[in-house]
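Morning run. Coffee first, then this:
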Amino acid sequence: MELRLLSSADVDDAHKLVQDPETLRFTRIPEPPPDGFARDWIARYEQARATGAKEAFAIVGEDGAFLGIALAPVIDAESAEAELGYIVAARARGRGVASKALDLLTRWAFEERGILRAYLVIDVDNPASKRVAVRAGYTHEGTLRSTYHKQGRRSDTELWSRLPGDPTPNPPLR
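And here it is:
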């Protein structure tokens, strides 16, 4: 498995991904996604790539199949912090794809971007994502009450983080 830069060639796969109810439930993607959302979403990441403000990768299997998206929706170069995230296609869930993708994304953030604090914002009702965070070596920092707002609904989120000097996952995710 590898991460490659997300591009307009991934629009069809991203469109399928954002139609999935589980994706919509635990992400900031509007429900239902407006027409052209996947195309515009990818274009925003491609534009932000030029400034370094955010980044997105396609998660790709050894056979080249699209497995999901790994994101850095917020990169603050001045404070050397980045929010990271991942969305795995339904057909690829339960196989360790998210944990491996998050490990690769975290290493990219530390090694390529010089990030000194990577963090995840996870819905309190998303136990699968919490397990991914643990497997990728993240530490639970606490619960933020009523911080997530989407289309008139509010929910609590958990903040998880990893620093470059934290222990690597054991066993390492490769």
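The chain is about 30% helix and 35% strand. Good start to the day.
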